[in-house]
Design goal:
The protein is built from eleven helices and 20 strands. The chain is α+β, with helices and mostly antiparallel strands.
Amino acid sequence: MDKLKLQADVCIVGGGPAGTLLGFLLAKKGVSTIIIERSSGVNRKFRGEHINSETEAILKEHQLFEKIEELGILKMKKVEFFAGKHIVNTITPSIDEDHVGIHVPQANLLSAMNQESGQYENYRLFFNTTVTELMQDDRGVYTGVKAIRDGQEIMITSSVVVGADGRYSTVRKLANIPTVEMTHGYDVLWAKIPAPAGWEPTTRMVLVNGHQLALFTQTGGFIQIGWNIEEGAFPSLRKQSLQPFLEPLIESFPELKELVLQHLQTWNNFVCLKVQSSRSDTWVKDGLIIIGDAAHTMTPTGAIGINCGMKDAHVLAPILTKALLEKNITAHRLKIFEKNRKTEIKEQQEMQMKQEASFSGKFAQFALN
């Protein structure tokens, strides 16, 4: 079969929130852009689907928020901290906001952005496409990617390659960019159940045996539940009876008992996320950039991962557009992006670690009547 040869100013590997937003922003500025995504579409299983007010502002700045809202979002009214059945602390919106976070199904987020990007002739998106090789010239500058799409080899020549392909980034590995992974002593079990009638759009946090249990109300009438467990404990945990594991949830929220027992009947109803954060030594090389989880994996704490990745795209787009106009895509030139974002990312990762260490303190300072 003949190879398919394509050309673009920028080839983005990874069609998640960060890569998709970057593709839209570049195409809007006249930069020819190709996004390749290994999955078959936008209906993938995601965990982090909550955006904060900063990301909301970014989406509004680029006239994307209303398009996403039309497909469905859910604004959280408050965050509640529970000790057993008792609320011991509540966080409500600040005076100039109407939420404490927004649940945005990533299928809705990606669909809206892809639709807006599709109006530009200089934008192309390929699903079912997996990068296999990075191309370089004789000076070591990255000049594109080789990929496989539905069994056919594709060669995409580009001025810049952007790796937006997540925590296990193929681009990062192929570019030999070192990364330091940090474990946090816990993993997270995720499950989803339907929400009962009248369930308020609120994030609920519970302290269970010193660990966090979190309930996130979701668009479409669901509750996503996350249990923090000891790191690496799931294989042994799933050999035990499920009922004792569910009891603290049912005791804290008896109104969920019937739904919990109906929808969480075996350990197969859970997905285990290995929790880790990471920092890459550098985010750029000549002709190559990594963003989002590829450059800096965040933990689930604070649900900030998606927000960090989308801010990367927002910050990178004008920097990259200018670098292309100047025909200077050296690591030294692209380093402006890394310098712009790296300090904030480090601070946010440190903040996550402090929040994890002080979680039980959010309950200890409140005496129950």
